[in-house]
Amino acid sequence: MAPVAVKALCESSLIFIKHADLKKQIKVANTLDLAVEWIEADERRLKQMLVNLLSNAVKFTPDGGEIELIVAGDAANKTVSLTVRDTGIGIAPADMARLFKSFVQLDSGLSRRYEGSGLGLALVARMAEMHGGSVSAASEPGKGSRFTIVLPWSETMQTFSGASTDQRNQANPIGLNRSAQPIAEINAQSTHILIAEDNEANIVTLATYLQAKGYRLTLARHGGEALELARAECPALILMDLQMPVLDGLEATRRLRADSNPQLAHVPIIALTALAMPGDRERSLTAGANEYLSKPVNLKNLVALIQQLIEDAPGTKHAVV
Ligand code: MN
Asked: Residue 32's closest CA among 7, 66, 67, 3?
């Protein structure tokens, strides 16, 4: 447990659903209570909880809908609530009670269309309990749902929130051994990586680790999106899953190598695959990838490889983390 900068936490969680506004025209809003600058939490777990609720909201919200992440402090009751509100399909009253039980899914018709919504919520509830908090849900079928995580907000954290950086460093209320600096400030000048991957669990694992290492990330869910985002944002490096819908990683890699923009034609690409087949490495390298890794990826090795490729890239002027 350590002080977590709430604004940066929200921003780094919302990155995971940025594709929703590109692909489903879902409006994503973030409403912050400015009094709540800091809360005490296990940052990685708390982010997993938020990403889980946000991803669910995207899954159940039709095109053109709205999703809002709302943070509100209650100083008197010493709690902070983090709410994910959506304008999705909602949940029938009969299903509400079962919602947070492991492996429970809503009616079978729904679970076929929206697979895997059961276990995630049970984990969110468990993690909230481990923080001394709770999760609740409210919903109106056809109108939308609200999921709210309530966490303790100690007087120490309330004071910490109001204090200047100098005061915070002096007070060091719970014996911090690291400077509690908002992630966003670090990310501003850090290396930009595009992750092209269609599996949400892999995205969360990769993105959480790389964000913690200070990288700035963009996420693409298929090869077509990867091309679009690479052209729009010119990342310093691309992690390219091979098996993806719409356009697979091999084809996306070939098209990048053929791009008229020399920066894209030479951007370092690491190909990743879960179903390592004989010949995958050769096919990846022939398509134009610089390196090939089979999943599960050793994250430390991945970061070492990323740094090596960025430093080796011809004529790069990218800041190195
Ligand atoms: Mn895949």
From this structure: 7
The residue-averaged pLDDT of 196-207 equals 87
pTM of the model: 0.65
Q: What is the mean pLDDT of residues 88-92?
A: 87
Q: For ligand 1, a single-atom ion, which residues have Cβ within 5 Å? A: 198, 241, 243
Calculate how far, in angstroms, residue 162's C-alpha sits from the geometric centre of ligand 1: 44
Helix axes 43-60, 6-14, angle to 10 degrees: 40
The span from the CA of 211 to the CA of 88, in Å, is 29
How far does the centroid of ligand 1 lie from the alpha carbon of residue 250, in Å? 12
What are the DSSP E strand ranges found in 107-143? 134-140
Secondary-structure percent of the chain, ordered helix, strand, coil, rounded to 5: 45, 20, 35
Encoded tokens for 217: 């990330």
Contact 122, 102 (CB under 8 A): yes
Amino acid (one-letter) located at 181:
Q
Compute the distance from residue 201 Cα to the ligand 1 centre, in Å.
11
Is 109's pLDDT higher than 60?
Answer: no
Sign of CA dihedral 12, 13, 14, 18: positive
Ligand 1 centre to CA of 216 (Å) is 22
Distance 307 CA to ligand 1 centre (A): 24
Gap between the Cα atoms of 106 and 116, Å rounded: 10
